[in-house]
Design goal:
CATH class of the largest domain: Alpha Beta
Strand order of the largest sheet: 1-3-2-4-5
Strand content: 15-25%
Order of helices and strands: EEHEHEEHEHEHEEH
Number of strands: 9
Largest sheet: 5 strands, mixed
Number of domains: 2
Distance between the termini: 46 Å
Length: 189
């Protein structure tokens, strides 16, 4: 792992494939320290490090509104933002492009799935049961407990209601089994 500290935008130099990985973090906070430590264990990686305690003006350029966030940039465009502390294996899969790093119950690559929900929403629970039933791995974000995530959800979809599901960068409003099944190749029942 090679960490490259960033003080300004010009410090970030894409690799020969036009890619750059930029971690926005706040040193001294548990979640950010966790992300930094887990990324440190990724072999053969070069990651630019932006400590928001020291550098405060770069996050808007990348659309980052919470830390820790790992930005995947290609050819000067943001391809993905991975929020929170993930495992070193998850980060390694992202950096080394092993699909989304997620496989379904049959071991086949699966698109990244994020469910935005609240604990009291019955359709949120039905959606998660549906995904569980079909062996789909997903990240569940409780927007009632995380205002930054709620704001990010509204920014992505323009909608406040839950459930919302992001599948491979596409937002789905509500428990739309037909669209979810199509995007995740779940056979219709």
């Amino acid at each position: 792992m090679e960490w490259i500290p960033v003080n300004n935008l010009n410090d970030i130099k894409p690799d020969k494939d036009g890619k750059a990985f930029v971690l926005f973090y706040k040193s001294g906070t548990p979640n950010s320290d966790c992300a930094y430590d887990n990324l440190s264990r990724v072999k053969d990686a070069k990651v630019y490090a932006v400590d928001v305690n020291k550098v405060r003006n770069l996050h808007p350029h990348f659309g980052v509104n919470s830390v820790p966030s790992l930005v995947v940039e290609k050819d000067g465009k943001v391809q993905n933002i991975v929020k929170g502390c993930q495992t070193d294996n998850y980060f390694s899969n992202i950096i080394h492009e092993q699909s989304s790093g997620i496989t379904n119950a049959e071991g086949k690559p699966q698109k990244r799935v994020t469910v935005y929900s609240t604990p009291t929403c019955p359709y949120c629970n039905k959606l998660k049961q549906y995904l569980d039933k079909h062996g789909i791995k997903y990240t569940d974000i409780n927007v009632a407990a995380d205002q930054n995530a709620a704001t990010e959800m509204v920014r992505k979809s323009g909608q406040r209601g839950v459930p919302q599901t992001e599948i491979g960068g596409q937002m789905i409003i509500g428990f739309d089994t037909a669209r979810i099944s199509k995007l995740l190749n779940i056979p219709t029942e």
